[in-house]
Design brief:
The complex is a heterodimer.
Chain A: H1 2-23, H2 30-54, H3 63-79, H4 84-108, H5 113-130, H6 144-151, E1 155-156, H7 157-174, H8 183-199, E2 209-210, H9 212-230, H10 232-242, H11 244-249, H12 254-280, H13 292-302, H14 314-333, H15 341-367
Antiparallel strand pairs in A: 1-2
Helix pairs in contact in A: 1-14, 2-9, 2-12, 2-13, 2-14, 3-4, 3-5, 3-12, 3-13, 4-5, 4-12, 6-12, 7-8, 9-10, 10-12, 13-14
Chain B: E1 12-21, E2 24-34, E3 39-43, H1 50-57, E4 65-70, E5 73-75, H2 80-85, E6 88-91, H3 103-107, E7 114-115, E8 118-119, H4 121-134, H5 150-163, E9 168-172, H6 180-195, E10 199-203, H7 207-213, E11 216-221, E12 224-230, H8 236-244, H9 250-255, E13 267-276, E14 284-289, E15 293-298, H10 304-311, E16 317-324, E17 327-329, H11 334-339, E18 342-345, H12 349-353, H13 360-365, H14 379-393, H15 409-421, E19 427-431, H16 439-454, E20 458-462, H17 466-472, E21 475-480, E22 483-489, H18 495-502
Parallel strand pairs in B: 3-10, 3-11, 6-9, 9-10, 15-20, 15-21, 18-19, 19-20
Antiparallel strand pairs in B: 1-2, 1-4, 4-5, 7-8, 11-12, 13-14, 13-16, 16-17, 21-22
Helix pairs in contact in B: 4-5, 14-15
The chains are: A mainly alpha, B alpha/beta.
């Protein structure tokens, strides 16, 4: 059942991908695809974070502002003589602390997540503008090593696909039989395709390099999938998202799990914030990260996460993010007025949610 | 008191009503007649189908079979709005008032008179004042509902029904939360409504009220009509006989006894001077021994659920000590209680017990993860645990991957029990162990609880059902307003003895120290 949504989004992704490629051959150029992959990596990290909050039935509206704040703090600290590593650790700590604060306000004072994180959205944006006096920041030329975290291409894409696809497909087949789901066929297909592209020249694919943010995303996604599917914590998160009262009545410390979920979300927003800042290298405090929380939430919802909580897969978030990036790219390449960008993305999400609801009702009626 | 000559056609008649919920035949071939100026009492044990029947008459539920006639005309009550439009009003057990509004706004809630696009406050005030006067309200129409007592709120509900020209009024357990004087006021009002020609259905557990009010009585048992009694036949003894289907004297109850007497052994649970947050100044002392089944009886709101919640770390207590196995506990979270070997089967299994959308497997295993070492989710152990619960408790399910929401009430309750039994708790708390469960599953659960007790588990359960108390309890503690009103040994258990203590009457029995 949980795979139905993922399968649906995968189908839409393939269709949109194919139609765009037909409409404009530029779409499948190496340069363009590498860009899409990098942006998918960057936005996917945020989507993964917000999924942890969504699974509890909560929401985090502050992600974009955390991206903005972290993006401002990192060059600001570097300018003040911090080393690259301490500066990155410091801004990640800021993200973590922000998440802890959200979680504690939500569980201890029982404030609605919407309100807490809406206030966060305003506060962190204000701080991001005030700290550098609203001046645009950049990393200059001295931090190319650090910047390669965002703009580098450490390995070829076929190698990544082969290692990751094979590395996932094999344990999925042998160990996690109970909930293998759609992960196995997708991993196996990608792994095989990667291997093929390594041994024989496949047009475009063999030339593609894997952008560094995509590697970060896959690392985070692997961790997230392990936590959500193979640990007790994951079971607790899904359980409390379904019915927090029943989870608490079962002796689960639901408050702690909720705090942890908000901490993970803001920490990943911080990771994303670091990478986004390094990527653009020109950080306007008033703009940087604006609306990113909505992209993240949209990717999760598109990927099958229910805002009521307790439902969704990691693969879904990745596919949802990829679809959003492909759509965005298609709008540009197909000559659709870019003013329509939000309208088109909004309409696609709405259609997806409506179609899913209709299918659910149809199956529900047949099941009775 | 009985209506003179009832008119030929009843104001409202139901014929052959049937209603099935998943797993339960709630009503089967039930007929009743409500006459103008008469009170029909509808009695029966919990789960007998009283409330379902009344909800059907009020248009909230829809019958699977049967017809409803209003003044001889067949009608379809497809919604509560339609029912009120036809003059049938239900006075809810839980009052349905918006307590952020004032009395007059509630009287006209949802059908505000208007002048142009605006709410006509003058008309509301006048209409509400008249309706409230008819029910003898002692407060102004613009009093905020939040500040009113339960009895006064009920008057607003009745006034609301009157202002809609209700000719049929259904009272669902109206006195369950009322004080004695509020109850008397209500009875006088019902007498008055009867004189005004309203046809009244009155659901109650309290048989004294039925004796006082009813012109006729309809006794339901397991969804069927067990008896229809005329005024002259109504007595407590006949009502009880028809409700339970047999004579129940204390002697008869004793006959069924086989109580494990565990006197002298170390108590598993020992509570001293416990002061519940909702009942400051009232304290509770009690103890439960290994292999003992102790029942908590009392009226709605007496504090039974609050006591169980406090023992499970769900609610803070003001004072007192809770010892399990001789060790004093500080219960700040259910996790603390679970760690100490306490389990709670909650009152509302859908809201508090189960993850309805998740599989039997995940539901059964939910409480056990905390016991294991490490973080890895052990799927194999989870499967083994779920399969042993399904086999051991006789859970009827398509398999352990079946969604719990698709199971019947009895099987859902077994899933909750299975979750706790996997932990082998020392003390099992149950709040209404078989509420809303059909008779067969109820007996299975009772038999299961017997087995657990035989293995030395201590049971403390709250129940509103006399039959269950008699079937399960080695002794009963009767609660009244947040304190123990008394203790009854199994031999002294009877509806009368429990009710006397539950209503605050009767000598205070020394609590066990």
């Amino acid at each position: 059942m949980k795979d139905r949504k993922t399968l649906g989004i995968l189908a839409i992704l393939v269709v949109v991908f194919g139609l765009t490629a037909l409409g404009n051959p530029q779409f499948v150029s190496v340069f363009n695809l590498e860009n899409i992959l990098r942006w998918t990596g960057l936005y996917g990290i945020l989507g993964l974070g917000v999924a942890f909050v969504i699974v509890t039935g909560g929401i985090d509206l502050s992600i974009g502002s955390v991206v903005g704040l972290v993006g401002v703090l990192l060059p600001w600290l570097l300018e003040r003589g911090f080393g690259a590593v301490p500066a990155v650790l410091a801004v990640l700590a800021v993200g973590l602390l922000i998440g802890l604060a959200h979680g504690l306000l939500i569980t201890r004072l029982r404030l609605p997540p919407f309100v807490v994180t809406l206030c966060g959205l305003l506060i962190y944006r204000g701080a991001a503008r005030w700290i550098p006096g609203d001046q645009t920041l950049a990393f200059g030329t001295g931090h190319d090593g650090l910047r390669s975290l965002a703009i580098g291409f450490p390995i070829g894409l076929p190698l990544l696909m082969a290692v990751l696809g094979g590395g996932l497909a094999i344990p999925l087949w042998f160990r996690f039989r109970h909930e293998r789901g759609l992960g196995f066929p997708v991993a196996a297909f990608l792994g095989a395709l990667g291997l093929l592209a390594m041994v024989a020249p496949v047009p475009v694919l063999s030339e593609l390099r894997a952008p560094a943010p995509l590697l970060v995303l896959f690392g985070a996604a692997l961790l997230a999938a392990l936590v959500l599917n193979e640990t007790v914590w994951g079971r607790y998160l899904y359980a409390l998202g379904r019915n927090e009262t029943a989870a608490r009545y079962s002796g689960i410390r639901t408050e702690r799990m909720t705090v942890a979920a908000y901490a993970v979300c803001s920490l990943l927003a911080g990771v994303g914030g670091v990478l986004f800042a390094l990527d653009v290298n020109s950080i306007q405090p008033a703009m940087h990260g604006n609306f990113y929380e909505l992209y993240a939430i949209a990717a999760a919802v598109l990927g099958g996460w229910s805002l009521r909580g307790g439902e969704g897969t990691v693969l879904g978030v990745l596919l949802g993010t990829a679809l959003l990036r492909v759509l965005y790219n298609a709008i540009n390449l197909l000559g659709i007025p870019t003013q329509l960008e939000f309208a088109i993305i909004g309409a696609v999400i709405l259609l997806g949610v409506v179609a899913d609801e209709l299918v659910r009702r149809m199956l529900g009626r047949r099941g009775r | 008191m009985s209506g003179a000559n009832p008119p030929a056609a009843p104001r409202l008649a139901a014929r052959g009503i049937g209603k099935r919920f998943p797993g339960v035949q709630a009503l089967l071939d039930v007929s009743l007649e409500l006459h103008a100026g008469q009170v029909l009492a509808v009695v029966g044990e919990n789960g007998a189908g009283k409330s379902t029947l009344m909800r059907i008459l009020a248009g909230i539920e829809h019958p699977d079979a049967g017809t409803i006639l209003l003044d001889g005309q067949a009608v379809v009550l497809e919604s509560p709005r339609r029912a009120t439009g036809l003059g049938v009003a239900l006075i809810h057990q839980e009052l349905n008032l918006a307590d952020n509004l004032d009395a007059q706004a509630n009287v006209f809630l949802g059908r505000e008179p208007r002048r142009g696009p605006f709410v006509d406050r003058v008309a509301i005030r006048a209409g509400a004042a008249a309706a409230l006067a008819r029910v003898g309200a002692d407060f102004a129409p613009d009093t905020a509902v939040a500040g009113l007592a339960i009895g006064q709120r009920q008057l607003i509900e009745i006034a609301k029904a009157l202002s809609q020209d209700a000719r049929v009024m259904i009272f669902d357990e109206p006195t369950s939360s009322l004080t004695a004087s509020e109850t008397e006021t209500l009875f006088e009002l019902i007498d008055e409504l009867r004189l005004q020609g309203v046809a009244i259905a009155y659901i109650s557990h309290a048989l004294g009220e039925v004796e006082r009010l009813a012109d006729r009585a309809l006794v339901l048992r397991d969804g069927r009509v067990a008896a229809e009694l005329e005024r002259a036949q109504i007595s407590r003894a006949t009502l009880v006989r028809h409700m339970v289907g047999r004579d129940l004297s204390p002697a008869a109850a004793r006959m069924q006894s086989g109580g494990t007497e565990a006197a002298g052994s170390v108590p598993v649970l020992q509570v001293r001077g416990l002061e519940l947050a909702r009942f400051p100044g009232r304290t509770i002392d009690l103890s439960v021994a290994a292999g003992e089944r102790v029942g908590l009886a009392g009226l709605v709101g007496a504090g039974r659920s609050e006591l169980l919640a406090a023992l499970f770390g769900l609610e803070p207590v003001l004072a007192g000590s809770i010892c399990v196995g001789g060790r004093e506990l500080r219960l700040r979270h259910p996790a603390d209680a679970v760690a100490a070997g306490i389990a709670l089967v909650p009152e509302d299994r859908k809201e508090q017990g189960l993850l309805l959308e998740m599989a039997v497997r995940a539901n059964v295993a939910l409480a056990s993860h905390g016991r294991q070492h490490g973080l890895r989710l052990d799927h194999r152990r989870e499967i083994a645990q779920a399969e042993s619960a399904v086999a051991g408790l006789g859970i009827r399910t398509a398999g352990i991957e079946q969604r719990v929401g698709a199971l019947s009430g009895g099987n859902q309750q077994k899933v909750v029990l299975g979750r706790w039994l996997a932990l082998d708790p020392r003390l099992l708390l149950l709040d209404e162990p078989t509420r809303g469960i059909d008779v067969g599953a109820r007996q299975e659960i009772h038999a299961l609880l017997d087995r657990l007790v035989a293995q030395g588990m201590a049971l403390l359960f709250a129940t509103s059902e006399m039959e269950e108390l008699l079937a399960l309890a080695d002794r009963a503690l009767v609660m009244h307003e947040g304190a123990l009103a008394g203790e009854l040994a199994r031999a002294d258990l009877s509806e009368e003895s429990v009710l006397q203590l539950a209503t605050g009457g009767g000598a205070r029995v020394e609590a066990v120290a």
